[in-house]
Amino acid sequence: MKPIVFFRKFHKWLGLVIGIQVLFWAAGGFVMTFFDIEKVRGEHTMAQPAAYTLNSDISITATQALQQIDFEPESMTLKGLLGNPVWVAQSEGKQAIVDATTGQKLSPLDESMARQVALADFSGEGELASIQLLSEELGEVRGKDLPIWQAQFNDSDNTRVYISPQSGDVVARRNDTWRVFDFFWMLHIMDYKNRTDFNHPLVVFAAFLALFMTLSGLYLVIKMVFLKPKRNRVVKA
């Protein structure tokens, strides 16, 4: 079999195998460049955090705050939560919040406080429609510690704010735009389960096939266009 015949068949059948995934890569790349990443991340509806400065309201020391928690922390951090100073203790995935003015342990956050954190974080058009504590893993906050508070707003993009009951931090912001982006991200990296691994064996193998399809196509172009043998002209008598 002549090389050009082999490469024609090779390119055709390889294109049938990998062509759809190449289309998904192109579509995914287009979508990911089309959307504003700030809108995908929900940053356009995020309120500007209020400036917080330490003052004389702090009456509970870190040592006193330690008496309110049931584990030995690796670090104690002083920060502001809803305009009030709090101590945040951390150790190997464990966290606890202690009010730095009253000494009261605030974690895990109850619904009332989680609602206040969500409202303080959101600046978009819409109201808080519902709030619930999730104990089962949800795809759009995969990898986040459970349980987690989900605050649902009724704005045009259905913004969802996720709050850690242990630290009081907003750990994720999601919306309908993010869901579209995430779907095409899944197609782009071919991780159909966790949607996080972009160098797993399947995508590496697909990229390998796509490379060979491209090289075979390049060979055909060079062979048929630039190295095409000249035909002898037949002169009629």
From TrEMBL:
Keyword annotations from UniProtKB, A to Z:
Membrane, Transmembrane, Transmembrane helix
Keyword field contains Acyltransferase: no
Q: One short Pfam family name for this protein?
A: PepSY_TM
Signal sequence, renumbered to the chain? none
- Identify the domain of life: Bacteria
Q: Which residues cross the membrane?
A: 12-35, 202-222
What PANTHER family does the entry give?
BLR3280 PROTEIN, IRON-REGULATED INNER MEMBRANE PROTEIN-RELATED
Protein's name according to its UniProt entry? PepSY domain-containing protein
Give the originating organism.
Kangiella aquimarina
